[in-house]
Amino acid sequence: MRKEDCFYLGIIVRKHSYKGEVVIKLDTDEPELYGKMESVFVALGNNLVPFFIEKSSLHKGDQLRVKFEGVDTEADAEAIMKAGLYLPLEFLPKLSGKQFYYHEIIGFSVEDVNKGIIGKIKKINDNAAQEILEIETESNRQILIPLVDDFIKKIDRENEKFIVETPEGLIDLYLEDEHERED
Question: What is the DSSP string of 23-86?
Fold first, then answer.
């Protein structure tokens, strides 16, 4: 299994007992969806290794206490500390309306209700305080649009379109010198 075919579920944050149990901090708004899993992929080095779950229980909201098969001692648990956990993309719940997963909109055309098609989504930058859509125009220019709920008007999954209404002047900031060259 490749990471590109999976989504990040969480990270092993601590040992829970001397019998190899660990606590996973889940990276989800709906931890209850993952309380009864049979297995997960654990990132060990550059590989995703399947680990089978003997038992699990939700713990303190977004944490999952897990006993993996073959992880029977504190030393076994220590060997997987801070490892990321992944599941195949098909395990993600389907979203509709204006809800979306970042990976699903990569490559969508972005259409501003006032400016028309402005480019394609290349990436979502989520390393800052505000997530940002990174859009590439046909002329290979980059446009950055903050991912603000009020800007998102519609997600047309069928036609792979992300429709936005940005504040006046935002897109023009990125295209200004392009328009000046045309004049």
Answer: EEEE-SS-GGGGTT-SEEEEEETTEEEEEEEEEEEEETTTEEEEEETT--SHHHHHHTTT-EEE
